[in-house]
Amino acid sequence: MAYLQDDPPLPPLATLFPYLEHDPVELPAGLDPFTVTTSTGFLPSRSPLVDLPPTFDALSQIVREMPVTKEDGHPGLLAEYKLGPLIDSGALPDLTDAVRDIIAAENPDLEIVTALFRDYSFLASSFLLEPCWETWSKNHTAGYGLGRQTLPRCIAGPLMRTAEVLDIPAFMSYAASYALYNYKLVDPKLGTSVYSNLRLIRGFENGLDPTSSEAGFILTHIHMVQETGPLVDGAVSLLKAVEADDVSAGKASLQTMLKAMHRIEVSMENMWSHSLPKDYISYRTFIFGITNQSMFPNGVVYEGENNGKPLFFRGESGANDSIIPLLDHLCEIPMPKNPLMDILVDFRNYRPKPHRTFLAYVMSKAAELGVRAFCVKDMQLAQLYLKLLDHVRSFRWRHWLFAREYIIKRTSHPTATGGSPIVTWLPNQLMAVMDLMESVYRDSGLEDKARAGDSEEWKFVKGLMANVEEQHVKLDREVKKYCEERGV
């Protein structure tokens, strides 16, 4: 919830986030793996668990056999559309009680719970979307057809119980299953900073081959997020600087975040070579959700859950990453109040609880302190603030290019995997940050200084804003074109 003027001051940071500045090796065992720290940022504080407890061997065996291409290179269950019949045959026992035993502990091990959630959510998506994969594989122009409309009790029960403990929706999510809790290290000593050291734990199509586009798509996200420790550190430092009215510390904090965002965007740009646009539509079949999708017009019934009524969940989406939301909240970027913004707010529910709690704190604290006002009180601060906003613009612009080249030009399916309108949703947020940049440039005095100055720094600022103006026009033109082509 956003901070209101009459609200009491928020509690101290250390009270709300006691582990924020701790070394991950000092964290208690079994803590939520997505506990945010200034060293690991939004990545799990420890590498994800690969193996489940022996009680879940039947599940482990099935998810290993499940991918279209298994780790050994041989065809898996999805290659021949055999997963559904296998589950229907009773090959997977209902292990809901075994999950209950784990979560009934006084301090349940949330690393185990998250690993179970990851594997059950991979199985759930594979089971529900297998018919869509078959339809698409046999005729790429036929669309996706219908998915399975009921999730069996042996999957639904454990998935619901783990989701309840983690306080996230009971469906495939970006952080807790598909991407950020889905990697292992070839050499633990090298860590996550070396891209070639990363491998997937689970995949749908060819993702267990590290050279595949599916692997590249997920591993690129992991490699981006492993740079977020300094970003979180800079955000926390900026809040402290604003509270102390320390301009010098504020500048240092912004510089820290600018360096972090540069590294993040360098990793992001590598998506083009790690994951080819022509391949995305194929493995994308398995990450659709069960709301606002033609494959699930009435949602999905989870056997034994919700009194037999269908459930509706959004699919996996990179929009659930926490990098840009952190900067949205910290920089106080205003978003338009429209139905597209409602989707943005709904996406928050799909982030891990520690991410949500931290982001909500930053949003409220930034409003309480007036971060945006602080950042335009000094010309150097205003320049740094404008450059940080430009990273938000650049990140969102690249995301738009990905959507355009990987999806819009290759399929007429109207919705993204998360259930948002594929053409209009990203531009909604991109235009918002460009509007703020133009406002800051004009109202802070930067524009007047830039017009009068001829130093390299002022030339850079003028060029930055010229690019914003050009992209604003280009984006508006592209959105209108794609909307007309699709009859939106």
TrEMBL record:
Keywords: Dioxygenase, Heme, Iron, Metal-binding, Oxidoreductase
Signal peptide, first to last residue: none
Residues annotated for heme b binding in this entry: H399
UniProt GO MF annotations: heme binding; indoleamine 2,3-dioxygenase activity; metal ion binding
InterPro entries reported in the protein's UniProt record: Indolamine_dOase, Trp/Indoleamine_2_3_dOase-like
Highest taxon of the lineage: Eukaryota
Catalyses which reaction(s): L-tryptophan + O2 = N-formyl-L-kynurenine
EC number: 1.13.11.52
Gene3D superfamilies listed in its UniProt record: 1.20.58.480
An annotated GO BP: L-tryptophan catabolic process to kynurenine
Protein role: Produces N-formyl-kynurenine through the oxidation of tryptophan.
Stored PANTHER family: INDOLEAMINE 2,3-DIOXYGENASE
UniProt similarity note: Belongs to the indoleamine 2,3-dioxygenase family.
Record-given protein name: Indoleamine 2,3-dioxygenase
